[in-house]
Amino acid sequence: MVEPVGNHYVVARRVYSENLFNEEHKKLPRYHKTFLDHLKLYFRCSPQRVKKIALRLFPVVSWLPAYRFKEWILSDIVSGINTGLVAVLQGLAFALLVNIPPGYGLYAVFFPALVYFIFGTSRHISVGPFPVLSLMVGEAVINLVPDDTDGNVTNSSVIDEQRVMAAASVTFISGVFQLALGILQFGFIVIYLSQSLISGFTTAAAIHVLVSQLKFMLQLTVPGFNKPFGIIYTLESVFSQITDTNIADLVTSLIVLVVVFVVKEINDRYKAKLPAPIPIELIVTVLAALISYFAKFEEKFNVAVVGKLEEGFQAPVAPNVDYIQKSIGNSISIAIVGFAVAFSVAKVYSIKHDYPIDGNQELIAFGLGNIVGGSFKGFASSTALSRSGVQESTGGKTQIAGIVSTIIVLIVILAIGFLLAPLQKSVLASLALGNLKGMLMQFKEIVILWRKDKYDCVIWVVTFLAAVFLGLDIGLAAAVAFQLLTVVIRSQIPSCTLLANVGRSNIYRNRKDYADIYELEGVKIFRCSAPIFFANVEFFREKLIAAVEFNPVRVLRKRNKALRKIRKMLKKGELQVTPVCFICMANHTHESDEELDNNRIEELDQPPNMTDLPTQINWGSDLPPGITVPQVDIHSIILDFSSVSFLDFSAIRVLQKTLKEFVRIDIDIYIAGAHEGFMDKLERCAFFDEEIKPSMFFLTIHDAVLHILLKKDIASCPKLKLAEEKSSNIYTIKPSNGLRSWECTV
């Protein structure tokens, strides 16, 4: 019963152990589903389930009939046109990161967006190339098709064809991997990539993008180095040829970079006042193409230009099996990173606009998009935050805006692609770098993370360094491994504290944090704030022993050795027992512990047996001369397991052994706040026996404390003993002077 009194409350109930509570409130037996039950449930078939699966697999069927045509269509058209123009330019620019002709970037924009319209669940992301993902595909392409050192034009065209095929094959198998994960409901895999890891990884990828675009900005022949420390070799190659820089390309790149950065800063600073972001990429591209065409930059300054783009679509092709076999590792990394980036961006917009997204369905959508895109010689797609920001900020409501953007891309592919032929590649490289501002600004997170969580800060730095120097694929694997290692380290060294009563109430907190604390004499309350498993159970044991300030094994062995000495003295007549004390009848010869052990060390770890002695020994009183044992000042230990979410079998065995060591030296052990199912697991693991009993489990710390007080004071308080017999264990215990002095009232 709870009685509110102002801002206080008074609770009157019994002192509950786990068993007593379950008996009184009739705990119901529950059936826990097995793995086979879950499989049967997953593969069951009914008309309702078929309909549910169909709607989940084709989300467009759910939202398209509810589309508010009059309210949304204009916004989606405007947003789609703006997004489509940006997507065209980014597709051309990011194709350079893949080391293939720019025109194939348009296929990477068109097909995935078309597929995502049907299968995707986010309404606001713009699907297409992403610089980090494009660079990862480019590294795989360089590994499969290295650069030609001869510089032959014919060989160059052949290499371009092979690289297009390599990029398509890597994209295809990445899509297959994503599709398989989606079908198997592995959408949760993204949880293993923390925000710190993703931030450090994308920042490192931005550095790789910056270095990879130097050869286009300076127009240098730099081979690809897809190996650890490849970025060092790339920079070495760039600086060794720095005197061969094409000044026209360099000047153009710098001008474009400055203009793009300035206008993007204006867009960010005045986004609340601007009706739509200034399409600086489009403006710069049009001006650069016009200037290059009329000033004849290619003829006069020998600049590298985009050249003729492929008109129309090419026939779909099957992936190259040899390329697939050699790039499985790269494809898995590309699939995971692409999904992680897209899902994180989609989640931001889903929270902002209050609609659900399905991680497994997103995997299926991106998987099918990459399969289709790879079949038509595109490369891996995800989403770019800048492009998605354009789609959302210009009024996009649904993926209708995505369809409009694909129409813009389609027009470029079929009709006006030739207008981009005189555009310098250095301009595209500068546009690619212009989209890296947000990623490069993530360096500021190091200081913020160091102040908030040093573990996350270390994860960020290690991920960044690993991805920069080891490459994006190996770096990602190393970063994930290091992140999981930090989790193991944190759980392997859990927080263990001694608790005390605060404010004479039922609240127990760390005894070091409060001045107004009260502690029961002879009682230690120990909390472990982490799961206990094979890796940290020894740490838990060491901390518990340090908290009670004695080793129970050492005490037990000393007591058993003392019993051996007493038996020996009694047998020789050197010791006489009286009701009050032991009387030594003769000088006892000191014997070493080694002689007493007599190669029977295992017997010293058994419970002390006093049945053959004429009296029970009180270890706290005076012992015969020459016999000493460590003094134990506590009689009860309460283990707060409210934060222990699980124990594995190894931890259960060690915990059982540790508790028995305390029980054998007459210390009562109580476990409070254990989670549901905890005792059931212990019973299955044969945890309980004659020494360790289920009655040691209590609902709360305060229940265990009150039980200890009743148990210790019941003999010295006759009224309390009488009340126990008459009132079914319902007591009122009133502390008169803290928890160290108790007045028993009924």
Description:
The protein has about 750 residues and is an alpha+beta fold. The chain contains 31 helices and 15 strands. Among the domains are: about 70-145 and about 155-305 and about 330-415 and about 425-490, no CATH class; about 495-550 and about 635-715, 2-Layer Sandwich (Transcription Regulator spoIIAA), CATH 3.30.750.24. The two termini are about 20 Å apart. The strands form 5 sheets. Strands 5, 6, 7, 8, 11, 12 and 13 form a 7-stranded mixed β-sheet that branches. A two-stranded antiparallel sheet has the order 1-2. Strands 3-4 form a two-stranded antiparallel ribbon.
What does the secondary structure layout of this molecule look like, with pairings?
Blueprint: E1 2-5, E2 8-11, H1 18-24, H2 35-42, H3 47-57, H4 60-63, H5 69-97, H6 104-119, E3 127-128, H7 131-144, H8 153-183, H9 195-212, H10 214-218, H11 230-240, H12 247-269, H13 280-295, H14 297-301, H15 321-326, H16 328-353, H17 359-375, E4 382-383, H18 385-393, H19 400-416, H20 425-434, H21 437-440, H22 445-452, H23 454-470, H24 472-492, E5 496-502, E6 508-510, E7 517-518, E8 523-528, H25 537-548, H26 552-572, E9 575-577, E10 582-584, H27 593-597, E11 636-640, H28 649-663, E12 668-672, H29 678-684, E13 697-698, H30 701-713, H31 718-726, E14 732-735, E15 742-745
Provide keyphrases for this structure:
alpha+beta, two-stranded antiparallel sheet, single chain, elongated, Transcription Regulator spoIIAA, 746 residues
